[in-house]
Automatic annotation (TrEMBL):
It comes from Actinocatenispora thailandica. SUPFAM superfamilies: beta-lactamase/transpeptidase-like. GO terms for molecular function: hydrolase activity. Keywords: Hydrolase. This is Esterase.
Length: 355
């Protein structure tokens, strides 16, 4: 990475930052897009799909990891707009198997804002190696706090949200996401479970001890893998251009989407802070700017929001500045223990906000 004397008198670019991170082996490949309401202003790709592998291309498919969550949230709000679901409705109303447990009174809104009380990272796959067993384990998870009283990031909560969205729509989650989000926005290369023929387009992720191989073309998240690659918390793969289209669609209040999609008030509601009385700022499926150590850097407006993914992905939207930024990397390749991504991500978003 550059030192201060080297930076004197110049303004660094996102490309320079990411090339330096690649040389430091933070990731083998990256793709990025920064822009505003007029579309992308700076974009690029670098590196390879794996160390020693073929080069990253514009059509590379990236494992979005938890960037899946705001996409599923958009699909849930599509159902709300169409009268098929309500934010105040509870898990028990939609999933009878939860009626007698602690999760019964948790609402859809609390799942979306990570205030359900469900615990954070839960390696359920270790004890529940098949879909039926893992789904049966979800209702038994103990709440860590009373619903609505604390923010705790919970992938388990979004697994449950995905099940509710399926029940409310009557469709499998992959069909719902295609109908409610990727189809209307025009994201032809985004979806769950890439075809075998597209495996060579996918950026590699971890050399996974659990699977005994380098993961490429299947979801990195182990719980999502047990669920068949389609889940509310992880599983989407897509290209740089597709995620940039989604960022622009949300930033523009839906004006870049031809035909009927989500309304501008709904999109604004999703990005607004719903947990400001608590310690962390969360929207409906989006992560707002927290008071300290935001992954979205230091220069964005207080109203900005986005989401990150464990594989090294992120999308950031700033309605005040009228800007978005997308960063896709495979920072877990070959190991999730690779250091440096937190710093790279914050600096990337500072550069995106400053120009």
């Amino acid at each position: 990475m550059r030192t201060l004397p080297e930076l004197a008198g110049i303004r660094a670019s996102e490309a320079e930052l990411l090339h330096a991170a690649h040389r430091a082996r933070v990731f083998s490949g990256a793709a990025w897009s920064v822009g505003g309401l007029d579309g992308p202003s700076r974009r690029g790709t670098l590196g390879t799909l794996s160390w020693g592998g073929p080069p990253v291309r514009p059509d590379t498919l990236w494992d979005w990891a938890s960037v899946t969550k705001p996409v599923v949230a958009l699909a849930a709000m599509w159902l709300v707009e169409r009268g098929a679901l309500g934010l105040a409705e509870t898990i028990a109303e939609w999933l009878p198997g939860y009626a007698d447990g602690e999760l019964a009174p948790v609402t859809v809104e609390q799942l979306l804002t990570h205030t359900s009380g469900l615990p954070g990272r839960q390696p359920l796959y270790r004890r529940h190696p098949d879909r039926a067993s893992l789904l049966a384990a979800l209702p038994a998870l103990p709440l860590r706090s009373a619903p609505g009283t604390a923010v705790e990031y919970s992938s388990a909560g979004f697994m449950v949200l995905g099940l509710i969205a399926e029940a409310a729509s009557g469709w499998p989650l992959d069909r719902l996401v295609a109908t409610a989000v990727t189809g209307p926005v025009g994201m032809p290369d985004t979806g769950f479970r890439p075809a075998t023929s597209d495996r060579d387009r996918c950026a590699a992720t971890e050399d996974c001890p659990w699977r005994g191989e380098v993961v490429q073309g299947s979801v990195h998240d182990e719980n999502a893998a047990v669920l068949g690659g389609v889940a509310g918390h992880a599983g989407l793969f897509g290209t740089l251009d597709d995620l940039a289209k989604l960022a622009l669609a949300v930033l523009s209040g839906g004006t870049t989407v031809p035909g009927d999609w989500l309304s501008a008030p709904t999109l604004a509601l999703m990005g607004r802070g719903h947990t400001d009385r608590l310690d962390l700022r969360r929207g409906l499926g989006w992560q707002g700017r927290d008071p300290h150590a935001s992954p979205f850097g230091d220069l964005g407006s207080p109203e900005s929001y986005g989401h990150t993914g464990f594989t090294g992905t992120s999308v950031w939207l700033d309605p005040t500045l009228g800007r978005y930024a997308v960063l896709l990397t495979n920072r877990v390749h070959p190991s999730r223990a690779t250091p440096g991504m937190d710093t790279v991500r914050r600096r990337f978003h500072n550069l995106a906000a400053a120009r």
